[in-house]
Write a structure and sequence with these properties.
Length: 692
């Protein structure tokens, strides 16, 4: 009642108001839910190496025994020297402050326990999105607020030990510059852990709590030193240090060594675009909150550990390779690599030759991820570039449809045919085939090959490994059902680069030759299905998500479909794509000296180039890894510039082919990546799918 009486206006006490105050105090809650305060979320690689940190409040909780005794003693001495004597509210302190304030002074009386209560309540408001209700200083508290704080402080002291309260306080309190808690503040201002704070450093930080902006040692060093010395004087007065320790600390210069926290994927230690992809997946997954705002709070305040599938052994070489591909790159050509593990769908590496922020080492700056769909997390975030024209890397889809009908790779087709007119009799049981190639019709041309010597009969195998357009069309024309091409693409998970699972329409003839955008990750994963003998697995990037209490609250399990492609078909496709590297278009994959680049383990691949030579590919795999390599126009309409008569990395190209730049990028990277996984031989296909 004494405390309550001191906190209400004198007029309110008259006429029995004191009794009403007692009733109010009884009605106030006596329990305080002490939830973990907002903490840093960590995104880590498969081996635990840090990728990035995410936070709205820079805070890393530490135990009391992981804090220097200096800081514990300093904070008690300056903020609440009777902390270990009172029961949550210091009546003597309230009387002292009341007298001082009546005399025109300004003195607070909140104990560390009361301050802790205020911080816990504020943190709960922020966690619930009620930022406007946060109490910044004591002047914002009404009398009801102060009464509630008192009762909660008293109740808190009955529930927790002094050590627990002091630990909680030092982990939650704000020290300025987005440094919350003693560990974050120690790192920010002095680049040391809380356990290693010296006496002057501890006194400096303890002095900050009373006025973080006024006593900041970086912005206001003179005020900070005065405040530090006041703290040291209090420590001397209350027996925490002796005179010699005091004098030496007062005489010491203020020496800060800032370690500025850099949060967000843009500052990732590795794989910033992969990090961004992972974050978008979390933000669009209802498992982490019913609303977008809840998911954002979970991510930025939840202290999560997001363990990803990224393999730093591959990510490092991938990043080095794409950075080297285009050199200084004043023309802003894009280069990217993305690797998926066959049989699991795990994304092992994702790299591109740009940076998210200026000043990070390259002058190619963009937030767009070259490797993923435009809507990369089934949401509305257009953070993916939206894919590129895959060109001839789409030809294995028609090959899979051919083999799926039991037709052999060594069967001959008429690749001399160049006209497929409006009324060509395609055999189809689903959508009518759209598009035509016929120079006798206005606005159309006959079907073109890259070179004029390939208009002849040839095997389906040769048509694929030499990448002959007319052979692919002849194969499609020889199918019992043209719709099997669409079925093959769907079984491989190939969809539009726009995302959200939008189907790539293979009833449009131009798409047989890769005319519509597909993301590199989609292509890498499709070829991984061939590598896994027909088992299709959805791409996964998050192994598990652990909350601040060590509980597993999420993660992506491999979602695979066995025999999405018939195993014998996948094996036969691989058998043909091996020929690409040994006798076909892949022979043009050469080093700077003109020599062939060998992966070193059994491999299969397909080259691809769009009609403008502005978007070029190699997608290939071993038994253990599948990688899509891209080089070309990454951010604009590919028709706006072509890849002819261009200089790239000091070398002139009459025209850029998939094998010329994307090819060496793929092969040199795979030389390092492939030996780390399954290096065995591919399984042989059944003989009937080779010779018939």
């Amino acid at each position: 009642m004494l405390v309550a009486g001191l906190m209400v206006p004198a007029a309110a006490v008259v006429g029995g108001a004191a009794g009403g105050t007692a009733q109010l105090l009884d009605r106030l809650p006596s329990e305080l839910t002490v939830a973990p305060p907002g903490q840093i979320t960590k995104v880590v690689a498969a081996d635990g190496a840090q990728i990035a940190t995410l936070f709205s409040e820079n805070r890393t909780p530490v135990r009391l025994d992981e804090m220097s005794p200096n800081v514990k003693n300093a904070i008690v001495a300056v903020e609440d020297y009777r902390f270990y004597e009172h029961g949550g509210v210091d009546l003597a302190g309230i009387l002292r402050a009341s007298v001082a304030n009546l005399r025109g002074g300004r003195q607070g009386a909140s104990t560390i326990t009361q301050q802790y209560v205020t911080n816990v309540l504020n943190d709960a408001r922020v966690a619930q999105g009620r930022h406007h209700e946060v109490v910044v200083n004591g002047q914002q508290k009404g009398y009801g607020d102060k009464l509630r704080e008192i009762k909660l402080a008293i109740a808190l002291e009955k529930q927790y030990t002094k050590e627990q309260i002091l630990e909680g306080y030092l982990n939650i309190v704000f020290f300025n510059r987005n440094a919350y808690g003693i560990q974050a503040a120690s790192q920010y201002y002095f680049s040391v852990d809380a356990k290693d704070l010296s006496l002057p450093q501890a006194a400096t930080l303890a002095g900050l709590v009373n006025g973080p902006a006024f006593f900041d040692p970086i912005d206001a060093p003179e005020a900070s030193v005065k405040r530090r010395n006041l703290v040291l004087a209090a420590m001397l007065e209350h027996g925490h240090i002796n005179r010699l320790e005091h004098d030496e600390a007062v005489a010491s210069p203020l020496e800060t060594k800032p370690s500025l926290p850099k949060q967000g994927c843009a500052y990732a230690a590795q794989a910033p675009y992969f990090c961004d992809f992972v974050v978008n997946q979390i933000l669009h997954d209802p498992a982490y909150g019913a609303t977008a705002a809840e998911r954002e709070r979970t991510l930025s305040r939840g202290g999560l550990t997001i363990k990803t599938t990224l393999d730093p052994r591959l990510q490092g070489p991938a990043q080095e390779q794409v950075d080297a591909t285009a050199g200084a790159n004043p023309d802003k050509w894009g280069a990217s690599l993305v690797t998926v593990q066959p049989g699991t769908g795990k994304i092992l590496a994702m790299a591109q030759n740009s940076r998210m922020l200026a000043g990070q080492g390259l002058d190619f700056v963009t937030a767009y991820n070259f490797n993923v769909d435009a809507r990369d997390a089934n949401g509305n975030d257009l953070s993916g570039a939206g894919g590129f024209q895959p060109g001839s890397t789409m030809k294995p889809v028609t090959l899979a449809a051919w083999l799926g009908e039991g037709k052999p790779t060594n069967q001959y087709v008429d690749a001399s045919r160049r006209r497929y007119g409006l009324n060509y009799p395609w055999k189809t049981t689903c959508s009518p085939v759209s598009g035509f190639y016929d120079s006798s019709l206005q606005g159309s041309l006959d079907l073109q090959n890259d070179e004029s010597t390939w208009y002849r009969r040839m095997t389906v195998r040769e048509g694929v490994y030499q990448s002959i357009n007319t052979a692919t069309f002849a194969s499609a024309a020889g199918l019992g059902d043209f719709c099997n091409i669409q079925r093959a693409a769907d079984s491989l998970g190939i969809h539009k680069g726009e995302g959200q699972g939008k189907k790539l329409d293979l009833s449009t003839l131009g798409n047989l030759l890769g005319g519509e955008n597909v993301a590199p990750m989609t292509m890498a994963n499709a070829f991984a299905t061939f590598a896994a003998n027909g088992a299709y697995c959805e791409p996964v990037s998050i192994s598990e998500v652990i909350d601040s209490q060590g509980r597993r609250i999420g993660g992506q399990e491999p979602r695979c479909t066995e025999n999405a492609v018939k195993p014998e078909v996948a094996k036969a496709v691989t058998n043909v794509l091996q020929d690409v590297l040994t006798k076909g278009s892949g022979l043009n994959i050469k080093d700077a000296g003109g020599g062939p680049i060998k992966v070193g383990v059994p491999a299969a691949a397909k080259t691809g180039t769009n009609q403008y030579n502005s978007q070029t590919w190699v997608v290939g795999y071993t038994r253990g890894v599948a990688t899509a390599s891209f080089f070309g126009e990454a951010l604009n309409d590919p028709s706006l510039r072509n890849g002819r008569d261009v200089w790239v990395n000091g070398r002139h190209y009459r025209s850029v082919d998939g094998a010329f730049i994307a090819g060496p990028q793929w092969a040199q990277y795979m030389q390092k990546a492939a030996p780390l996984f399954d290096r065995g031989d591919f399984e042989a296909p059944p003989r009937n799918l080779i010779t018939g």
